[in-house]
Amino acid sequence: MAITIKKSSKEVEGLIRRVEEISGVDLNLCYQCKKCTSGCPVAKMTESPPSEIMRRLLLGAGDELLGSDIIWACVSCETCSARCPMGIEVAAVMDALRILALEKKAEKQEGNVPLFNRAFLSTVRLFGRTYDIAMIAAYKLGTLKLMNDTEKFPTMLKKRKIALLPPTGADRKTARRIFKKTKQNKAGKE
Ligand code: SF4
Ligand code: SF4
């Protein structure tokens, strides 16, 4: 993929600075060994693997980087962070880019990944940890494709891959407090 290098643009400086601010990562430490990419389970399915994202940020990429498909393909497995010889939290960079993509309403945030993220977080906020049935219901209502993939449901139930009852023993009050605090912190920054 062609890499565009921009010089001394405020927008460019802003993207690098914001990514470093949010992720706590020093992008200058990356020396392009590509170990993050070689371990990434989704790298081959995307146009820009993690090492390229790091490089493009360093070269001065602007908001166009927020349209990269890996931002939403990334499954937060943290393999990239674990493999990086410089101890760079590459997964945190992906998190930062997701936050910025949502903030700036970047193009490729579409698809159902943001919807899935919202469904996942809603169940954690309500039940203190993930609750599969509630998450699936919220996701399916959002997509309006209620019958998609339902053929797998009985097998997953039989193999106990999906719990019918809400999780027990979760500290719901603490989870709600964390969500509330995060919301307040975010409002304070705006
Ligand atoms: S593993 Fe670390 S140093 Fe190597 S390319 Fe990835 S981020 Fe850069
Ligand atoms: S956290 Fe994301 S970018 Fe890193 S290895 Fe996993 S899927 Fe790839």
3D structure, described in words:
This protein is mainly alpha-helical. The chain folds into 2 domains: 10-109, Fumarate Reductase Iron-sulfur Protein, Chain B, domain 2 (Orthogonal Bundle), CATH 1.10.1060; 113-189, no CATH class. Helix content is 54%, strand content 0%. The chain contains 10 helices and no strands. It has helices at 10-23, 35-39, 50-58, 70-73, 79-83, 90-103, 113-127, 132-143, 153-158, 172-189. The longest helix has 18 residues, at 172-189. It is globular, with a radius of gyration of 19 Å. The model is unreliable at 8-12 (pLDDT under 50). One iron/sulfur cluster (SF4) is lined by residues 30-36, 51, 54, 83-84, 86, 88, 90.
Produce the secondary structure layout:
Blueprint: H1 10-23, H2 35-39, H3 50-58, H4 70-73, H5 79-83, H6 90-103, H7 113-127, H8 132-143, H9 153-158, H10 172-189
Bound molecules: iron/sulfur cluster (SF4) (2 copies).
Residues 39-42, 50, 74-80, 90-91, 94 line the site of one iron/sulfur cluster.
Give a quick rundown of the structure.
The protein is mostly helical and 190 residues long. It is 54% helix and 0% strand. The longest helix is centred in the last third of the chain and has 18 residues, at 172-189.
Shape: globular
Oligomer: single chain
Q: What do the pLDDT scores average to?
A: 85
Ligands and ions found: iron/sulfur cluster
C-alpha Rg, in Å?
A: 19 Å
Largest sheet: none
- CATH topology of the largest domain, by name, is Fumarate Reductase Iron-sulfur Protein, Chain B, domain 2
**Helicity range:** 40-55%
Count of folded domains: 2
The beta-strand count equals 0
Instruction: Tell me which CATH architecture of the largest domain applies here.
Output: Orthogonal Bundle
Q: Please report the number of helical segments.
A: 10
Overall CATH class of the largest domain = Mainly Alpha
